[in-house]
Specification:
The protein is an alpha+beta fold and about 400 residues long. Helices cover about 55% and strands about 5% of the residues. The chain has a 5-stranded mixed sheet with strand order 1-2-7-4-3, sandwiched between helices. A hairpin with a 2-residue loop joins strand 1 and strand 2. GO terms for molecular function: heme binding; iron ion binding; monooxygenase activity; oxidoreductase activity, acting on paired donors, with incorporation or reduction of molecular oxygen.
């Protein structure tokens, strides 16, 4: 009996050792970039999600760039990832959308299709989603309708803020961004909704950056639960539109998609819901974070705020009626405002990087990125490069005068 137990233990040790070896040395038709896959299953997730309160490149990424170079491999939440701070390679990757790579959210969309069902090409889906977003949020829409709607929303929001003793800027910015985005997407009215959509999206965003442990009480579990609730809300809205199209037509993004369903077979009801959720999340998360940072930077830099106010007051003085709505010409004339926006975006990387998935094996600097691996293009490595921007961590909108 002891001999049998010894054999079982030995076999178990061999299997575990072999599994760990395969984890740390993934298969590749070439040479993998240098790096570490971390611990089995969790990889280096814990190190990555440790918060940083600096505007500099994430300590997790910065430490590994110094150790491995501009391109390295790691594992996050059990998924192999290649991180790149190489500007030329990052530019190349972002130009290959729908060809060599596809956006990370397509992983979520792929799960919607049943086994054996014809799935459209990832590049085609990306092109559709991009054109959909541009048609409703691009320059033409901004000029035609969004500019005035934004001004109305901002004035209403600021009026509400002025009646409060204090506000939590991050939460308030998130609510403003999400309510506006949801209104454009599916005519959402927070005053008529029984569920706080902002709270659900905030919880979802927090959960994405937490350890992926799906048990009650964890942020990740809360993230998944709120994700389901939001999807159910969107399913109800979609079903209502499909049931009574003449009575519920709003001319929003959802109506656009419903019309496209007549010619696009891949737009199943579940797929439409996922598109709506994904588009709203991307816009809400990036815009709310950028607005919050802008408030902080302007509060800390009174000279910038003074010049910004001067530019806006000069525009008001030229108006026949100071209370008239903003015009497209006025918007285009706000030169310093654009400098402030550019500088805020340069400093305010919402995520460690832009994430794509390799559709095919990709060669970079003599290394191979296997198909199916995630690629994180660290754009902040260029935006905070002292060789490109002098004193890169300083908030200096005037630097854009010479760009």
């Amino acid at each position: 009996m002891p001999t049998l137990e010894l054999c079982v233990v030995a076999l178990l040790v061999i299997c575990i050792t072999h599994w760990i070896y395969k984890w740390k040395n993934p298969k590749c038709n070439g040479i993998l970039p240098p790096g570490s896959m971390g611990l089995p299953l969790i990889g280096e997730t814990i190190q990555l999600i440790i918060p940083s309160y600096s505007l500099d490149v994430s300590p997790f990424i910065k430490k590994r760039l110094q150790r491995y170079g501009l391109v390295f491999r790691t594992s996050v939440a059990g998924r192999p990832v290649v991180v790149s701070a190489d500007p030329e390679f990052n530019h190349f990757i972002l130009q290959q959308e729908g060809k060599l790579v596809e956006s990370w959210y397509l992983d979520l969309f792929a799960k919607v299709f049943k086994q054996g069902e014809n799935r459209p090409d990832g590049g085609y889906i990306h092109k559709y989603v991009r054109n959909l977003a541009l048609s409703h949020f691009g320059a033409e829409s901004l000029k035609a309708k969004l500019l005035l709607q934004l001004e109305e929303m901002i004035n209403k929001t600021i009026s509400t803020w002025s009646n409060q003793e204090s506000i939590e800027v991050k939460r308030a910015a998130a609510e403003m961004a999400l309510n506006f985005g949801a209104k454009q997407m599916f005519s959402y009215d927070p005053e008529k909704s029984s569920i706080d959509l902002t709270e659900k999206y905030v919880n979802f965003s927090k959960g994405l950056l937490s350890f992926p442990l799906n048990i009650p009480g964890t942020a990740y579990h809360k993230c998944l639960e709120d994700h389901k609730k939001v999807l159910n809300i969107m399913r109800d809205i979609l079903n209502e539109r499909l049931t009574s199209p003449d009575e519920t037509n709003q001319g929003d993004v959802l109506d656009h998609i419903i019309e496209d369903r007549k010619v696009e077979n891949f737009l199943t009801e579940e797929f439409v819901v996922q598109i709506m959720f994904g588009l709203l999340f991307v816009s809400f998360d990036s815009l709310s974070a950028t607005l919050t940072l802008a408030f902080k930077l302007l509060a800390e830099n009174p000279m910038v705020l003074e010049e910004l106010n001067a530019e806006h007051e000069a525009i008001l003085r030229k108006r026949a009626n100071p209370n008239s709505p903003i015009t497209w010409e006025e918007y285009k004339s706000m030169t310093f405002t654009l400098y402030v926006i550019n500088e805020t975006l340069r400093l305010g990387s919402v995520t460690p990087g832009l994430i794509r998935r390799a559709r095919k094996d990709i060669q970079v600097n003599g290394y191979t990125i296997p198909a199916g691996w995630a690629i994180m293009a660290v754009t902040s490595a260029l935006q905070l490069n002292p060789d490109v921007f002098e004193d890169p961590l300083a908030f200096n909108p005037w630097r854009w005068k010479v760009v």
